[in-house]
Design a protein that fits this description.
alpha/beta, TIM Barrel, 8 strands, globular, binds 1,3-dihydroxyacetonephosphate
C-alpha cells in the first residue's frame, strides 16, 4: 500500500524538515508496512538518505542532466539530494503550467532512463466526466500517449481534476468502476487514487480491490493528520 503526500506549493524548507522529523519518529515507533512517500517543494528538498522510513521525491524536474534551462532543475541537482522518486503528469502541471503530453512523455522517458520511481498522474476534467464513462476512458488513455506502461518502477495515480482540492472526492462506486478498468490494463502496476482524500473517505477508497494506495494533497499538509491517514491505511485489511 502506497500512502503519498504531495505538498504542492506549501511548506518551507524549515517546516518541511520539522514535518519529516515528526513523520520519521511516528514511523519509527509504529508498525507500519506501507510505502510512505513525501513530495515537498523543490526548495524544501532534503537529502533522501536522511530518512529511513520515508521516500522523499520531487514534484517536478526538467528532462536534462544540466544546462541552460532557466528556472528548471535537472538530474544533476536532484542527484545532489539522492532523489530517485518523482511525480510526472500531475493535472496542475498539465493544465495550469501548460505541460504538453509530448513534454510529459520526455520527462517520463528521462526518469525511466535514470531508473527513478515514478508516480504518473492522470485524470479527467469535469466537462469530460459529464460526457460519461467512454469519454472519460478515451481521455485517460490519451494521457498514456508515449508512456511505457510496462516500466517496473511505475505507479499510476488516478486523480479526477474536479475532485482535486475541492473537498469533493469522487463517489466510491465511480472510483471503483474506473479503477477496475485501469487496473485491467495496468496489471501489477500499483494504482493510486487522489482527489480530496481525507480521514473520512480513505478507508472505503483503499478497501477497493483495484486501489493500491493514495496520493494526498490538503489532508497531508499537517503531519499529525498525515500520520492518522497512514494509520487508517495500515488498518485496512486487504
Ligand atoms: P487534494 O488531496 O488536496 O485534493 O490534492 C490531491 C492531489 O492533487 C494530490 O496530488
Amino acid at each position: 500500500m502506497i500512502v503519498a503526500a504531495n505538498f504542492k506549493t506549501n511548506h518551507t524548507r524549515e517546516t518541511a524538515a520539522i514535518y519529516l522529523d515528526a513523520l520519521e519518529l511516528f514511523l519509527d515507533t509504529s508498525f507500519i508496512d506501507c510505502d510512505i512517500r513525501v513530495y515537498p517543494p523543490l526548495t524544501a528538498l532534503l537529502r533522501a538518505d536522511l530518512y529511513s522510513h520515508v521516500k522523499l521525491g520531487a514534484q517536478n524536474f526538467y528532462p536534462v542532466v544540466s544546462g541552460a534551462y532557466t528556472g528548471e532543475i535537472g538530474s544533476h541537482q536532484l542527484g545532489e539530494f539522492g532523489i530517485k522518486n518523482v511525480l510526472i503528469g500531475h493535472s496542475e502541471r498539465r493544465v495550469t503550467l501548460k505541460e504538453t503530453q509530448d513534454l510529459i512523455a520526455q520527462k517520463y522517458a528521462f526518469a525511466k532512463e535514470n531508473g527513478w520511481e515514478i508516480i504518473y498522474c492522470i485524470g479527467e476534467p469535469k466537462d469530460v466526466r459529464e460526457q460519461g464513462i467512454s469519454a472519460v476512458l478515451e481521455y485517460l488513455w490519451s494521457e498514456f500517449d508515449g508512456i511505457d506502461m510496462d516500466y517496473e518502477r511505475l505507479s499510476v495515480a488516478y486523480e479526477p481534476i474536479w475532485a482535486i482540492g475541492t473537498g469533493v472526492s469522487a463517489k466510491i462506486k465511480d472510483i471503483d468502476e474506473i479503477s477496475n478498468i485501469l487496473k485491467s490494463k495496468l496489471g501489477n502496476t500499483p494504482l493510486l487514487y487522489g482527489g480530496s482524500v481525507n480521514s473520512e473517505n480513505l478507508s472505503s477508497i483503499i478497501s477497493l480491490s483495484s486501489c493500491d494506495g493514495v496520493l494526498v494533497g490538503n489532508a497531508a499538509l499537517d503531519v499529525a493528520n498525515f500520520c492518522k491517514l497512514i494509520q487508517i491505511a495500515q488498518n485496512v485489511k486487504k
